[in-house]
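Section 5.1 Outputs to date
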Amino acid sequence: VIRQASKLGEEKVLARTDELTGLANRRRLIAELDAFSGVEGALLLLDLDGFKPVNDQYGHETGDQILRQVASRFIRSLPNGAVLARLGGDEFGVVVPGDPATTLEVANALRATLSYPFLINGNQISLSVSIGHARNDHTGDLLQRADTAMYEAKRTGVSIVEAAVYRP
């Protein structure tokens, strides 16, 4: 019975963990957002720019190594209380508590972690990131607003775009 309970606990953890990076996954991020409703902070959605050509040119193993290194760089730049998740592919989400200036500072720190190249198998590989920043203003769909801002950042080539305040 104890082994079964332990296995169930382990399976629950694995169900909320990204297998490649060891980060939280989309399911865990959504659970964190539910608990985040009464907290001042922001949701950041990050999408790596230039990642697909890396997979195409160097192969998926190199792409996987880069994703693990990106995760490591991101983790080191986050304040206590932030939750970093890999949502799939080359997309990440971060729940960051704090005032708007602090959460924008975190977004800039995350962007800066990619300012120097990755060295993998003797190859220098450079990436950048598009970030959608949505303040937790307790109205509207935070995930949808951050996603829209991230795609605006990607479309315009601006590194960080703040989501518009929700207006019903």
